[in-house]
Design a protein that fits this description.
homodimer, about 500 residues, alpha+beta, Flavocytochrome C3, Chain A, domain 1, 8-stranded mixed beta sheet, 5-stranded antiparallel beta sheet, 15 helices, about 35% helix, about 20% strand, flavoprotein (chains A, B), FMN binding (chains A, B), Succ_DH/fumarate_Rdtase_cat_sf (chains A, B), FAD (chains A, B), oxidoreductase activity (chains A, B)
Chain lengths: ~500, ~500
């Protein structure tokens, strides 16, 4: 059947409502005898697989489904493809990669799993976390490198909360997204922007059979766009990301974040999550919202200075609080530990590295941070101290102490792993850091096949989910670079599952 | 109209489904033209107010509604009335009571509010917490004491996490429940046990209009009992308690509790919460599950020894860990701090007080704990140490140190408030403590009127909620004795609101 014919095709079906059916609380049948609502849904288009959201999880799912010969559409509500995936740091935690082996770094899926459980306060759904850890290198190798041609820098980076250096980087999430879009299009996947899903459609057995969309949707105008009904022969994949940009829903779960800024794009809202909950998905860990500790208050959103603060200052330098001019944390602690420490201090922290530490990091965003002045360069520590209102004598004492610890390799003050680089050689670099809302750990419940689980604990047939849209993989606190790992592994998993349905 | 006539009355109404209507994900209407499902619901009974759950929140709501001349029914799924409210310690936090004033204790709603926010990690919905704090003494005075005749011991107790002594006690939750049931019955409230709600019924505008029940329900048999439809003219109050006894749902939110025991009765399950979520209620803080730190592993459920451990050992004595025979916490920290400390130690803690500390506490459950041997009496510290495998020399050193701190009134080791009583005079008493699942902080979202809030942030008309069923009042960690305060204040609030509807 041609696409055109499919579009003209009406799926005539009576929707029988069993006694179990409820409409947002409306009882449709009040006795053991099922009432029947007969109605024709006019399906405007038919696909095997409908993917909602064009970030890393969605495009991974779309690609994996297309490999299985499924016809696939990806709907993106925004004008641009990729969501937060396109503006992130492009860092992916990979356990047991060839890059690690080349550098003699001993790592394993089990060690990554233990790191994720520790950061996650053991709230993680262990089978989901394990599934991600077991597949980071196999899927990054097979899909990112071999099939999509994603280019990594070749570095293996040590990121906060991880036991060993294991993070591979493209320096920008857009490099993943662009490669994925090309690969998807080659496989015939349709990627359609400005298309908002406003209903998930189920049949009489609560199996998901399609979606109602609004084409040419204008973000924030819920009634805008042309309504169409899209049939999903095999299933629907929810990969709409998190809700970090949705102040109402973030504040509901974490009222202290009322005035917090965030690192995301404006489309990181809660409508699809809410629609999924209305469709009977089970909410998991919604009250865990992560703040990224190293974003700069001197630029908008995620910005650029974080690249310096996370890669140079936290690894080869230090963070001080401006009121005491002293170190106050393990700069390689997990994100929550670091964000909590900065918030508790009451001030943005000052991230500092010298020219040697600075020179160890090559990152495309660092020149942009120097350009917008969120990252600054100083010829002397006196100038640096003056800029951030630090006590230069105290600061020099702290640096002397830091250098002593760096030379022994053992940070007895804050128990951090030391790279051995001291803070000594001018010029010096510094940036301010203050937490911004960055990731929502919670979402809908899934199983290891990427199938959505309903409130009663049963699989919702025809419904799949992956990425930040889901809850359980990261528990209470997500480790850095584990979001992309999650999106790739569960995106591919969901894509394989839905196309095999 | 007589009840009999009401029962014979059929409410004939067409249920029109707007485009917004969805059945557990089923789209019933696919265009801007509303489809209409016409159906007769045969209402078996009519009440103004239907209250679900007969614990403190439910009975408070029922009483307040009955005062407003509403006809009220309370449905309880179990054979016995009261749920966990009937088996708890009967302790209620009251800020600014006459009892405190008599004893010269300076307290205020604001101070309780700050204590609750501190324990709750500021995750509390502040307006809800404030509403509870502002009404503890007014409502305890007007309702518990004056209208229901609840008898308090007259003591004002210092409970962990509270800044000052403020807890009033009946020594058993059943004293509240019995008094409430009597008062409710005098006002014509029908209290019906073994009646399970299996559907919340809404009309075409998603207003809640009634419930489907199963009478003569047998707990755990979801298909048991006779189905009836109950019309709620003014509204339905959800006060079904928490889900501490529901291993599937607890583990989903907090996987570490897979093997944890719990303090509750077996009816503390999740069906009503799940039904409320299906009806479009907004989930808040579901991942915060509290463990009670001082329950005894040597008895079932909540037991009795906690009365000694919380009132005598934590206030006038100390807790030691058996592997070191040393103190290891502020024994008046909040529940999470204490539970975490015991779990981290890997062993049940040993709670110890001498005869002076023991004699300061009069509690009806203490003789029961001695009877079942979860609490034991020793003539010498040597005997006590032998029983719990402690190093008696180390223990004596710890006691000497403790007595030194007690005499100065300042616990520089663990920053606890000291009562001044030392551990010196035989006989000595001791009990083992290990955390058990005790309270679920999360639940459905409400506003300060006790109205249920839907996923989209709007009030669900006709639906109210109170008590452990709701989320937000306690944030991440509930303080001791604040559950009864919450149940009374929000129960009465919801009862006033629904009956005024």
């Amino acid at each position: 059947m041609s696409n055109l014919q499919q579009r003209r095709d009406f799926l005539k079906r009576g929707i029988a409502l069993s006694t179990a059916s409820i409409t947002g609380g409306t009882l449709l049948s009040s006795s053991a005898t099922a009432a029947t609502v007969t109605e024709d849904i006019k399906w405007d288009e038919h696909y095997d697989v409908v993917v909602i959201g064009s970030g890393l999880a969605g495009l991974s799912a779309a690609y994996a489904a297309s490999e299985n010969k499924a016809s696939v559409v990806v709907f993106e509500k925004m004008k641009t493809i990729g969501g937060n995936s396109a503006i992130n740091a492009g860092s992916v935690a990979v356990a047991g990669s060839d890059y690690q082996k080349e550098k003699g770094i001993k790592d394993s899926p089990e060690l990554l799993y233990q790191d994720m459980l520790k950061a996650g306060r053991n709230l993680n759904h262990p089978e989901l976390t394990k599934h991600v850890c077991d597949h980071t290198w196999p899927y990054v190798k097979e899909y990112c490198i071999d099939k999509w041609g994603v280019e990594f820098t070749g570095q293996v980076i040590h990121v906060g909360g991880h036991s060993v250096p294991r993070v591979m980087s493209t320096q920008s999430g857009s490099k993943f997204i662009n490669a994925q879009v090309d690969a998807c299009k080659k496989n015939g996947v349709v990627v359609q922007t400005r298309t908002m899903i406003d209903k998930i459609i189920s049949d009489e057995n609560n199996n998901v059979i399609g979606v109602r969309v609004r084409e040419k949707y204008r973000f924030g105008k819920s009634e805008s766009g042309k309504v169409k009904h899209i049939r999903a022969n095999k299933g629907v994949v929810l990969s709409g990301g998190g809700f970090t940009g949705d102040q109402r829903y973030v504040t509901l779960q974490e009222p202290t974040l009322q005035d917090a800024r965030n690192t995301g794009q404006k489309g990181a809202t809660s409508e699809l999550l809410i629609e999924a909950l209305k469709a009977g998905c089970n909410p998991v860990h919604l009250s865990w919202v992560q703040q990224y500790p190293l974003s700069s208050p001197d630029e908008k959103g995620f910005g650029f200075a974080y690249a310096f603060s996370s890669r140079a200052a936290c690894v080869h330098g230090m963070l001080v609080r401006p009121d005491t001019s002293k170190r106050f944390m393990n700069e390689l602690g997990n994100r929550k530990q670091r964000a909590d420490a900065i918030i508790a201090s009451g001030h943005p922290a000052i991230a500092i590295a010298d020219s040697v530490g600075f020179g160890k990091v090559s990152h495309s965003k660092i020149p942009m941070a120097l350009e917008n002045k969120s990252l600054k360069k100083f010829d002397t520590l006196e100038e640096l101290a003056k800029e951030y209102d630090l006590d230069v004598a105290v600061l020099k004492g702290e640096i002397a102490r830091y250098n002593e610890l760096a030379s022994t390799g053992k940070d007895v003050d804050f128990n951090r792993k030391m790279s051995g680089v001291s803070i000594a050689k001018a010029p010096f670099y510094a940036a301010r850091c203050y937490p911004k809302v960055h990731h929502t750990m919670g979402g809908v419940q899934i199983n290891v096949h990427g199938e959505a689980i309903g409130l009663d604990g049963e699989v919702i047939k025809g419904l799949y989910a992956a990425g930040e849209m889901t809850g359980g993989v990261h528990g209470a606190v997500r480790l850095g670079a584990c979001a992309i790992a999650d999106c790739i592994v569960f995106g591919i998993t969901a894509g394989k599952s839905v196309s095999a349905a």
